[in-house]
Amino acid sequence: MNKYKFPLVLCFFFGTIPIVAHFVNVEWVTAPSKALNDTWMPIIYVFAILLGIVNVVQNSWTKIKRREQGWFYAVVLLAGLFSMGFFGFTGAIWDTFGGTNLRPDGSATPFHWMATHMFIPLQSTMFALLSFYVASAAYRAFRARNLSATLLLIAGVFVMLGRVPFGDMIFSWLPGAENTFSGITEWLMDCPNAAAQRAIMIGAALGAASMALKVLLGIERSYMGKEQED
Amino acid sequence: MINNWLPALILSLIVCLVVQEAEASLISEFAAIDTPLDNGTGVTLNWRWGGLPSEGMRLRIERSTISNPGQFDLVEQPSPSSQTLYDQGLAADQEYLYRFTLTDDDHIVEVGVSSPVTPRFDIDLANLEVTDALDASGDSIALNWQWRQRKDLGFHLLLLIERKESEAEDFFEVAKIDPAIGSFLDNGLIEGSNYHYRLTILRAEGFEPGSARWLSSAVTVRRNFVFETLQVNDIRNDQGDGLELRWRFRQLDSLTSPLLHIERVASDGSLSKVAEVAPADERFTETGLTENQPYCYRLTLFEAGKPVAMLTSAEAVPVYTVFNPDRFNALFLFVLFCSIVLWLINTSRRGKDLFIRRIAGLNAIEDAIGRATEMGRKILYIPGIMSMDEVQTIASLSILGYVARYAADYDTLFEVPNKDPITFAAARETVREAFLTAGKSDKYREDMVTYITYDQFAYTASVCGKMVRERPAANFLIGSFYAESLLLAETGQLTGAIQIAGTAEVHQLPFFVCACDYTLIGEELYAASAYISKDPLMVGSIKGQDWVKAILIGVLLLGVILETAGVHWLTAFLQAK
Predict the structure, then answer these.
(1) Do B370 and B488 reside in the same domain of the chain?
(2) pLDDT tens track for B74-118
(3) Which of B162, B194, B220 represents a domain boundary (last residue)?
(4) Nearest to B29 by CA among B51, B46, B54, B44
(5) What residues of A are in contact with residue B425 (Cβ under 8 Å)?
(6) Is residue B2 part of a domain?
(7) Residues of A in contact with B511 (CB under 8 A)
């Protein structure tokens, strides 16, 4: 048995359990299926995240040692990793510095303060950038270069007008035409858009099922770095 | 002669009768006992006549307390023919003495005193609630009670429930039940009518005179419209130990702080509390029940602590089934799908050439790697942000294997930043194997596949930073993406890299289409591995997938026609349960 066979046998065995558990209701099938998700996965995750942290430290330390481009960012990364890690671990395990949440008097523990005043604002900043990127992507997408792009532009304009109060205000003076843009938007979203989305979803679902079958049967093994069947 | 002795004879007879009467006691027994089965406020007096009382005789019963023995108060003057008197309204646990006085035309004929007696508490209602059952049919009244009871009663009791509609009527029996049950639902009443109830404690053997009785005030039966539906169903495909309750209310929004009490109704009518839930939940699951045993539930809606609606469900039975019949349709499609795919894989294995349409995004992979090689810049491969339990990630790692092998062949710089730790471990193995397969294991470096962080936006910030600082020539964004998709793709676009994206997340596809040069849409992502490798087995699976898709299109068209014609069996069969 070469080094691929055993993982493939395991993959088939453990991959089949949830499929069988979906249809039959026998304790010795459903219990392992539940255990795989509830118990085994968290254990594997713990080891995997440890591996990840070691990798982060190794790579950052190498960057700093070799003074590679952007080595200062690696210093910041390691400082953040160790300080958050220190306050998080000591607070959670020994309850030092008042734990990891707010203290009874309402004051913030170091971990909580760093999370609230450093981590969350940075996270929000990244998310807020999305609005600018949407605008720039929309500008590029809505250039009427050909017929398809022109149709997209027209549909986009209708949807934008239908989504804001101003759209319906345009024809509000005309009796019976108060909801012109919101009506068109609704139709565009519910009919052509939903139809196209469902077509993609059906194709993707079949693709995913086919992929899962190939993985279970050991036909698809390139994710293990192995291309051909032995 | 007769005239001489006749008056003497009559006189002697009278004297004899008087003497006889004077010697024999008229009331032979006079006893006072604690009234059984009462609430400790009654004494029962029994006496027996030794002879017939004359017409003018009067009986007088008086009572005295031990603390004030000399003072007797009148209890009652019963008719001479009676033999029992129930004295009620006494103080429990206090000793009493009773005296009877028999008079004849204001002359005292006989006087007697009972032994001391102490009325004791036997049983009493601590609480009695008789209310409208608040049900939708408007034909029920709910009785709920709690007892105070002496422990040593020593005999089995029954509770007689009687009802009458108007004051003038007599009570008639509704039910005789075990008093310990604590509740009773009286059904079959007339909506809008008033009912009075009387509860009487009995010995199981029969009625005990003087037993405690309790009367309710009048209750009007009303129809309640708050409950719309209540259903109790077996949970399919469980261990036969669960039931699901589903309910719906009308005008729930108009209630202030509503709370729903769920109680289980046993076969003897007793209630056991199951849970208190928010009525807006509209469903509750109870597990740990006994298989094949019927269960019935009563739901009571409370507003500010007061019941406003009540409904009792029909019986439901938790059932255990080995195969879930609701999923027969899924099993049928699963078997059909697998059969077609395996048949076409077999066909392909036997050498039949199967056509797969051209996928531009996959053809461009080699071009992108070549471009990076020529420019001497890095290839950045982002395998999505999900773990290995996501099929898109597995598909992405399959493509990663090919990209890494090309990169190894061309000696191109290569980096795979990861968000998920398990994906990171798998990606590292994939790249290492790819370099090994390409015969360039010496070129493989551990820092080619890196772990960044588990946080979505911290990961995005790091990868965007790499794109801006290191300016990779080709970016591959293949896998499962969410809100970070546009941030990554747009940053890559701004740096001028050639970008190939692929995802099955429908909501992220427009962003990739806008910002990337090539996009693998949905199923193309899964077909990539087969398309690149041209392996007959893989190609056969793709062909099978296309066949199933063709069948589904046919089924969809047939479904549209049947639904338009008002035939629903196909829709019902394919309904996911």
Answers:
(1) yes
(2) 888 888 778 888 888 888 788 898 988 888 877 888 888 888 888
(3) B220
(4) B46
(5) 48, 51
(6) no
(7) 137
Q: Give the confidence band of A89 by pLDDT, cuts at 50, 70, 90.
A: very high
Q: What CA–CA distance (Å, rounded) separates B529 from B525?
A: 8
Euclidean distance between CA atoms A211 and B502, whole angstroms: 15
Global ipTM: 0.91
B292 touches A at CB < 8 Å = no
B335 part of contact set with chain A, CB < 8 Å: no
Residue B325 contacts A where some CB pair is shorter than 8 Å: no
Q: Is the pLDDT of residue B453 over 80?
A: yes
| CB–CB contact B431 A55 (8 Å) | no
Residue B576 touches chain A, beta carbons under 8 Å: no
Query: E strand or H helix at B163, and its extent?
Result: strand B157-164
Number of domains in chain A: 3
Q: How far apart are CA B425 and CA B392, in angstroms?
A: 16
Chain B residues with CB-CB distance to A129 below 8 A:
487
- Residues B294, B216 share a domain: no
Full residue range of the structural domain in which residue B370 is found: 360-534
Q: Given 3-state DSSP classes, what are the helix, strand and coil percentages for chain B, each rounded to the nearest 5?
A: 35, 35, 35
Reading phi first (left if > 0) and then psi (alpha if -120 to 50, else beta), residue B479 is in left
Please state, in angstroms and rounded to a whole number, the distance separating the CA atoms of residues B506 and B526.
Answer: 14
Would you tell me which residues 392-411 of chain B have a C-beta closer than 8 angstroms to some C-beta of chain A?
Answer: 392, 394-395, 397-398, 400-402
Q: What distance in Å separates the CA atoms of residue A157 and residue A163, rounded to the nearest whole number?
A: 10
Other CB atoms within a 10 A radius of the CB of residue B332 amount to 12
Q: Does B485 touch chain A (CB under 8 A)?
A: no
Domain with residue B166: its CATH number is: 2.60.40.10
Distance from CA of B457 to the nearest CA of A (A): 6
Q: Is residue B494 part of a domain?
A: yes
Cβ neighbours of B173 (radius 10 Å): 11
Instruction: Single out the residue in A40, A68, A96 at which a domain terminates.
Output: A68
Q: How many domains does chain B have?
A: 5
